[in-house]
Amino acid sequence: TSIVPSMTSTSFIISAASQLQRSQSILTLCLLLFLCLAAQPLGLTYRSRIFGVSLGFGVLATSDLVTTAWMSHNPQLISLMNVLRGSVTLFSILLWGGYFALPEPQRKLITLPITSPLLRWNEIAKALGHGTPHVTVGKVDSDVLAEGELRMMQRSLPVQSRIAS
């Protein structure tokens, strides 16, 4: 849409940059929408820092999208749009500051059924030639596990650790 026969090289560059900025803003908003939909299955809450940073970028992308659309139709209101963009940028910085100032809620342990398509990613990665995936093992709270799982974990411990505990 940036190429028009009567366009000069300067206006072509400006139009192309504007189209690229709109595309980037739409892509950012789509990624934010994906994060909103996938936050719960990934074990994130809307109070997590990952969501807060993404939300700040989404606010900036919305501002950029509205600004580029506005400026293409009303170029005489540049000073008003500059004030509004500055306000939105300040709001995003305050939003990020708020998310980093407040303590992040503890992440939940995710349990997946064996038929989950998310577990197939490791098999796909192995088939594509990637190495064995590494898993970070941390302390697991006993209230997260069922009683049968706790008994199985207790049985799988070496004899010396069972004696020590």
State the end-to-end distance.
70 Å
Number of strands: 0
Question: What general form does the structure show?
Answer: elongated
Helix content: 55-70%
Q: How would you classify the quaternary structure?
A: single chain
Structural Rg: 25 Å
- The succession of helices and strands, N to C, reads HHHHHH
Biggest beta sheet summary: none
What is the residue-mean pLDDT, rounded to a whole number?
77
Structural class: mainly alpha
What is this structure, in a nutshell?
The chain is mainly α. 62% of the residues lie in helices and 0% in strands.
What are the main properties of this structure?
165 residues; mainly alpha; disordered C terminus
Structural notes for this entry:
The chain is mainly alpha-helical. It has 6 helices and no strands. The longest helix is centred in the first third of the chain and has 30 residues. The C terminus is likely disordered.
Break the fold down into its secondary structure elements and pairings.
Blueprint lengths: L8 H30 L10 H25 L4 H24 L18 H8 L19 H10 L2 H6 L1
Helix pairs in contact: 1-2, 2-3
